[in-house]
Amino acid sequence: IEFYRKAQAVSETENYPAGLSKALRFRGNSHWYQGNYQKAFRFQKQALEIAESTKNKQHQAFIYNTLGLIYWTLNDSTRALSNLERSLNLAKELNSLIDIATAYNNIGLVHRKDERYEHSIKFFNEALNRDLLLKSKWGQGYTHRNIGMSYLRMGRLDEAETHIKQAVALSLEIGNKTNLVKAMLELGNLALERKNWKRKNPNVHVL
Fold first, then answer.
1. Which of 58, 81, 106, 179 is disulfide-compatible with 171, CB 3.0–4.6 A?
2. Residues 30-46: pLDDT tens digits?
3. How much is the pTM?
4. Could you tell me if 148 and 167 are in contact, meaning their C-beta atoms sit under 8 angstroms apart?
5. In angstroms, what CA-CA distances link 152 with 116, 130, 198?
């Protein structure tokens, strides 16, 4: 936060609105991660005002995405979806595949949290299509895990296994330990659903 505050001060001194918007957004993110939602909203909205006044649509897309996730964290699905849909529309205007994929994925998270599993899979598949176009194995691994988690909650265990194992394989290939650990956890949840208590060694070495 201290470094972002310094970046904010430099941006203000140099009259650099793009830098100022980014510094405020990152300050807001840091407060969000700490659970200080009031400050998180304040800095995000200050960043948004600057991005809108300078017509910086990319920054607007980032900020609406973050606002959507903050509302998702707070279980306010209506506001979460409203902000994420704004982010998606801006990303489409910019034809930014990575930001489109991000928005679709996050919209899917909201629908899954509200137990609209079919809807969540629809949005995750839209994200996966963009990940494939981008040839992003990081994105594909993340999205396959999300799809698998939705199928798991629907009780469609074979389909869940297919996607979760793809997430494991992709994460291993590129060394994405965070997604690998989360995907392995979902394989454990899948085994529980199947009442498969016997330990198996998947020959996955995380460390």
1. 179
2. 999 999 999 999 999 99
3. 0.90
4. yes
5. 13, 23, 19
